[in-house]
Write a structure and sequence with these properties.
The protein contains 2 helices and 5 strands. By secondary structure, the protein is α+β, with helices and mostly antiparallel strands. The chain has one domain. It has a 3-stranded antiparallel sheet with strand order 1-2-5, with helices on one face. The radius of gyration is 17 Å and the shape is elongated.
């Protein structure tokens, strides 16, 4: 069962992201649970999250007819690509840092960790 505090916090964060028209990848943690918020929907982004075989997949939709000009289409694709690459760079850095810290902790205090995943329930959140 998900942690209701994390779900509530994620919803508050999502409303701030919508208010300021920004995208984010957010990971929240309580003592026993994690909550992931992948919010890529912004006016300047052509990214969406769509359900495919029970999992959400990042999709890019940038049909020429959906934009007032070829330049506007190109700008949207460039902005979306910048967002995706920025998220990828940040997550890679975070991943490397967390693995190093976990390895150092494991040298002092051996531990086991298992991540379980709950079913997805909306397009902007992964549990």
């Amino acid at each position: 069962m998900p942690d209701p505090k994390l779900k509530a916090a994620a919803e508050e964060i999502k409303s701030i992201l919508v208010k300021y028209d920004i995208a984010a990848v957010v990971v929240l943690a309580s003592q026993s649970h994690m909550e992931y918020l992948n919010h890529v929907i912004a006016s300047w982004s052509c990214a969406t999250l769509e359900k495919d075989a029970g999992r959400f997949m990042l999709r890019i939709r940038a049909k020429r007819e959906d934009f007032p000009s070829k330049e506007a289409q190109k700008k949207c694709v460039e902005d979306t690509t910048g967002m995706i690459m920025g998220f990828a760079d940040a997550q890679l850095h975070c991943h490397e840092m967390m693995l190093k810290v976990a390895a150092m902790i494991g040298q002092q205090v051996p531990f086991e960790h298992f991540t379980t995943e709950e079913p997805h329930d909306d397009e902007n959140r992964r549990k």
